[in-house]
Amino acid sequence: MVWLVANDCDFESALKHESDVRCPYFDHPGWSFLFRKNTMACSLDEMPSPRIMKTHLPVQLLPDQVWTKKPKIIYVSRDVKDVAVSNYHFWYSLAVKRKMDMNEYFDSFMNDTIPYGPYRESVQNYFNLPNYENIMYITYEGMSADLDGTILNIAKFLGKEISFQNRLALKEHLRFENMKKNEATNNKSVLTNIQEFTDGTEGDSDNFIRKGIIGDHKSSMSKEYIDRFTSWYAERDSLNEGFNYRKVEEKCTD
Question: What's the predicted TM-score (pTM) here?
């Protein structure tokens, strides 16, 4: 959505180039190219403006230029229980050698022993940032409930105009089932190449875009774990920053 709004709804290019190439991870840009065959890697410096990048980094590990250049940031969050279930299926779509039991993975999630943890602290630290004009917060649930409104809000945030016709086309492009079939967004080729690289035999290359259903954790998470996740996540308000070697306030001065 962000790339298309910023690039005047250039659907032809969006379908031609995979999303991780158009919007690479700046914390590990090589990921966007390493498992793509016949794709030439380029540096982020060589990307044409407007550059759109994504990251899972906690706020304390963002580059210093974020606070001096003040690029526009869109922070997306989702129900933690749906995140945990989705994350479990994602990691095992990569055909890792040892597959955890789902409940074992939930325990690891809450014990902060998964990649990109600690999860609660990371989310809370972003929410604790001051009300900067260059930061926009959205939720997966809100976006799903009002996709039209989200498109308009993002266009306004990016200083872009979007016609009614393009908005309708964008909504159709963004339908979950369409993105699941879209080879530029479903990451099927990447997962397949990773499985070949790791000699994995149990991975599911169709699993990157899986369901996208709000509240789907109820179909695979027991009441015990639902209650545990609810209590665990509610404790975030009383947490310290989690990365006490660098305070957020020190990076958020004008």
Answer: 0.83
